[in-house]
Structure formats: structure tokens, C-alpha cells
Amino acid sequence: MKPFTYLASGILSGTALGYTLPVEVNTMNHQKADERPPESPQAFESLNIHNQDGDKSPVGFNPVLQAQQPFPVWLTEVTGLTEWPGLDPPYIPLDFIDMNAIPKFPAHDFGVCPPVRDSCSFDCYKCVAFDDVYTCPKLSQTFDDGPSPATPKLLDHLQNPSTFFTLGTNVVRFPDVYLQIMAKGHVMASHTWGHRFLPALSNEDIIAQIQWSVWAMNATGNHLPKWFRPPYGGTDDRVRYIVRQFGMQSVLWDLDSFDWQLVSNERTETEIYGDARAWVAKRPKSGLILEHDGLIRTVNAAIEVNKIIGRDQLTVPQCVGGINYIKEFKKSWWRTPW
Q: Which cofactor does it need (predicted)?
């Protein structure tokens, strides 16, 4: 088995949980992706989200004013803190992570790629590791950046279970929406705490972004996530190693809707729907689509894409024959295992 593969060449074999999945990469889509700039941290931070009153507010997080999920007693015992942190949470040492064993690949900023490809960077070179999930045998939608006030509209129209990669800050900000997603039978997954570009961070800060995301999901949904998607697709073998220490697997994509460009009018709904129809027409009709549920405009587009694709879709664990969560706790049991 090859330790990693580059997503630019015809027929590949993706492996997750010991399951070998032959796939045909949509090379046309990758060419289009090369022609469009990827979502950047600057673009994400410039987006506006609608609060519960329908007003617009800049993306950010004030835990004192915005966190609705109570800070659990067990998390105070673990961290010594009494409230949710801001976008850049503190690192809390964990005894199951050997800091000395983390690969020594250097950090790199968004858009500044290392000259050597041995770190298997997805954001730079579309490199995938042996346990990355990056496609699906059935054409399937996935959603990043929620939960948000726009998410319930998406839930009302989705014809099938899907996978939602949630931000910890939004989980504690909109816990009721998080529980609504769960109640509809969708799979909840991690998208970090504050949507930071992980390859640019120190090992400690990467761990902090992941651990606080996991704690938010545990406090709200009583479960430990199995599936993790790095913001901006920012991952390499240093980031992957840390993700694996939490028992999670990285999930990427091979089809990008570029729906975030709707906000800046760089892309139109018509273009997104045209791509969706092309993906449906392709044989085999397979792939993981990257979409977002953080804004009403991207949600509206996702609803139409769902109509185009139809209900014959899979969740990420169904794509690879995996489990939904590492562990699910009874609602009366709030103690974290670490």
C-alpha cells in the first residue's frame, strides 16, 4: 500500500478503515479547481453570518456574549477554566499525545507551499494519505462551518442523511441547531474550534483547535467524533498525526462547489447547478462534494443541488463502511474520558 497518493491522475485506490475503495477522480473538476483560488482565511473572515434576529454580524466569537451551551463541570475539572474560549483556545496538555513523536515537518502559511512534497500536503499538492477519506462510491454532499441560523432551512429540505463538519465555536453558540441536525439522523463531525489554517500553527495550537472542538461536541451532543475535516483542506502528515491521536480520520473531498464564492459574487448559483448536473451525468456517479451551511445563500444553493442529485447519497461513514462516532454517551453521563 502506498503511504500517500496525489489526486491528479485517473484511477486511484483510497483506503479508510482497512476498506479499499476504487474510485475514478473527476480530473475535469481538479482542473477547474486549479483555475479558481481556494477559499482563503481572509475570505472566510470577511464573510457575514446572520444572527438569530436576522441581522448581519462579522464572523467572530465572543464567548461571554454568544455561547449558549453551558460550560460543563467535567470540562472545568479537565481544563481549570469556567467558560468557553475565544477563536484561539488555550492548549491543554493531554497525556495520550506524545509531543516528541509528532513528525517534524515545518509549518507553512496558507498559499506558501513547501518545496518538498514529502509532508503530503493536501492544500498544496492534493496529496492524500492511506487513511484519508476523499471520495465516495455514491455522489454525496457534505457541509462545513455550521451549525448556523441558516442550517434549519437546509434540514427541512434534505432528502437524505448527510455529514456536517461543525465548528466548535458555532456548536456552543447554536447548540439547539446542533441537536436539530442530530435529531434528523445526520452525522456530526469536527471542523476545528475556530476555523484556523492548521499547517501554519504550532503543534500545541493544532491540538487546541481539535480538543476544544471535540469538547464542544461532547458537551452538546454527548459523543466523540470520528470524522474530521481540516479548514481550507489544510493538512499534511504533521496535522494528520495529531488528528489520529484523537482517534479521528481526516475527510477531504474530490468535488468542490466553490459555493463560498457566492458571497463575493465571484460565482453564481447557475454555475454551481451546472457543475452538479455534470457530476450527476458522469459515470460512475461518485464523489464527495464540499458545501457550506454557514450562510443562507449557500444553504439555498445546497437545497437545489440536493434536488439535482436526489436522495441516493451516503454519509461519510457509509462511504467507507465506518462508524458514526468513536463513542456515544448516555445523556445523563457527562464525564469526558480524557
A: Co(2+)
Q: Residues 108, 186, 195, 292: which is the catalytic one?
A: 292
Q: What is the pTM of this model?
A: 0.86
Residue 31 binned pLDDT confidence (cut-offs 50, 70, 90)? very low
Residue 98 falls in the annotated catalytic set: no
Domain residue ranges in the chain: 4-328
Residue 154 has pLDDT above 90, yes or no: yes
Options 144, 254, 259, 293, the catalytic residue: 144
Please name the residue that has the C-alpha cell 479521528: 248
Annotated catalytic residue 292: yes
What is the fold, at CATH topology level, of the domain defined by 4-328? TIM Barrel (3.20.20)
